[in-house]
C-alpha cells in the first residue's frame, strides 16, 4: 500500500483537523454507459444531454475509457465543501481509479482550492479487498473525520467514520420525497455536526459561515485533542444525531446493528 499524500504534507498537519470524503453516493451519483448504447439510443442520449446541460448546472457528461458518464452533484455539495474547507483539510478517498477521481474532483472543485492534489484512489489501496485505510492519510487518527456512505469500506477506522445517507438521483423514484435541502438534508446536517466537532476540538465558538477566512481556520495553535472522543461525546449529547445520518445508507445487517445500538442508547436514557 503506497502513501501518496503522506510525504507531501506530513510537516503541514500540525493540530489541524482533517476531513476524508468518499465520492460516489456521498458527494454525487455517477452512472456510466458501457458499452456505448446503439446509435438510436445514443442520439436520444445526446439530445437528453443537451437538454439537461441547458437547464441544469449540477449535471455533467463526459467520455472516458470508451464509456459515457453522467454525473449528478448532490444538492448543496459545493457550498458544503466550501464551508467544510474553512474548518478541515479536505481529502478525497475513493475506490475509483485515479483518472476517474481527478475528473470528478475537478467538477466539484474546478479551481483546486478545496482539495488540491489530496486524492487517494484505488491505485493507492491494496488488492483484493481495496479496503480504505487511514494509514494513507498524513494525519493522526485523533485528527481525522471520515464521511462515507459505505461503512464496510473502512473496517479498521469505524470510530472515525460518519456514515452518510446514500445519494441516489438516477432511477430513484422516491427521490422527490427525500430531503436534500440546504437546511435539513444529509449534507446540511453533516455540516452542522462537523461545525460542532471543530468547535469542541478548538474550544472556540466558531460559526460556519462563508465569511470565515481560511487563515483563521488554519490557526493550529490549540493543543491537540482526540476527535473520536469528541464525536462520541457529541453523539450522546445530540441524542444520536450521527445514527440518524447513518441509518438509510446501511445494508440489512448493518442497519440491524445500528438499530440495536440506537435502542440501547434509548434504554440507557430511560432507565
Ligand atoms: Mg460511496
Tell me what the structure shows.
There is one protein chain. This protein is α/β, with parallel strands linked by helices. The chain folds into 2 domains: 6-27 and 77-270, HAD superfamily/HAD-like (Rossmann fold); 29-73, no CATH class. Helices cover 36% and strands 15% of the residues. The strands form 2 sheets. Strands 6-5-1-7-8 form a 5-stranded parallel beta sheet. The chain has a 3-stranded antiparallel beta sheet with strand order 2-4-3, with helices on both faces. β3 and β4 form a beta hairpin. It is globular, with a radius of gyration of 19 Å. The chain starts with 5 loop residues before the first helix and ends with a helix. The structure holds magnesium ion. Residues 12-194 form the FCP1 homology domain. Its main location: nucleus.
Features:
single chain; about 270 residues; alpha/beta; Rossmann fold; five-stranded parallel beta sheet; three-stranded antiparallel beta sheet; 9 helices; about 15% strand; globular; binds magnesium ion; RNA polymerase II CTD heptapeptide repeat phosphatase activity; nucleus; HAD-like_sf; HAD_sf
SSE blueprint:
Layout: H1 6-9, E1 17-21, E2 28-33, H2 39-55, E3 59-64, E4 67-73, H3 77-85, E5 88-93, H4 98-108, E6 119-120, E7 144-148, E8 161-163, H5 186-202, H6 214-217, H7 227-237, H8 241-246, H9 252-270
Parallel strand pairs: 1-5, 1-7, 5-6, 7-8
Antiparallel strand pairs: 2-4, 3-4
Helix pairs in contact: 3-5, 5-7
The structure holds magnesium ion.
Main location: nucleus
Keywords: Hydrolase, Nucleus
EC number: 3.1.3.16
Amino acid at each position: 500500500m503506497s502513501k501518496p499524500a503522506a510525504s507531501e504534507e506530513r510537516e503541514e498537519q500540525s493540530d489541524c483537523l482533517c476531513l476524508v470524503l468518499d465520492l460516489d453516493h456521498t458527494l454525487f451519483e455517477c452512472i456510466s454507459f458501457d458499452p456505448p448504447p446503439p446509435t438510436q439510443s445514443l442520439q436520444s442520449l445526446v439530445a437528453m444531454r443537451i437538454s439537461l446541460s441547458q437547464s441544469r448546472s449540477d449535471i455533467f457528461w463526459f467520455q472516458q475509457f470508451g464509456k459515457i458518464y453522467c454525473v449528478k452533484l448532490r444538492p448543496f455539495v459545493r457550498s458544503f465543501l466550501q464551508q467544510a474547507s474553512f474548518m478541515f483539510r479536505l481529502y478525497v478517498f475513493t475506490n475509483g481509479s485515479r483518472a476517474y477521481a481527478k475528473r470528478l474532483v475537478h467538477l466539484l472543485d474546478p479551481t483546486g482550492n478545496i482539495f488540491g492534489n489530496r486524492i487517494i484512489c484505488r491505485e493507492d489501496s491494496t488488492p483484493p479487498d481495496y479496503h480504505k485505510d487511514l494509514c494513507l492519510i498524513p494525519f493522526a487518527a485523533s485528527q481525522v473525520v471520515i464521511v462515507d456512505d459505505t461503512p464496510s469500506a473502512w473496517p479498521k477506522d469505524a470510530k472515525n467514520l460518519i456514515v452518510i445517507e446514500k445519494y441516489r438521483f438516477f432511477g430513484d423514484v422516491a427521490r422527490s420525497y427525500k430531503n436534500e435541502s440546504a437546511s435539513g438534508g444529509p449534507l446540511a446536517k453533516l455540516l452542522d455536526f462537523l461545525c460542532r466537532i471543530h468547535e469542541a476540538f478548538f474550544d472556540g465558538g466558531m460559526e460556519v459561515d462563508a465569511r470565515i477566512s481560511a487563515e483563521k481556520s488554519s490557526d493550529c495553535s490549540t493543543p491537540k485533542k482526540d476527535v473520536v472522543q469528541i464525536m462520541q461525546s457529541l453523539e450522546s449529547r445530540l441524542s444520536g444525531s450521527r445514527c440518524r445520518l447513518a441509518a438509510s445508507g446501511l445494508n440489512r445487517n448493518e442497519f440491524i446493528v445500528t438499530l440495536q445500538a440506537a435502542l440501547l442508547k434509548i434504554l440507557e436514557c430511560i432507565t
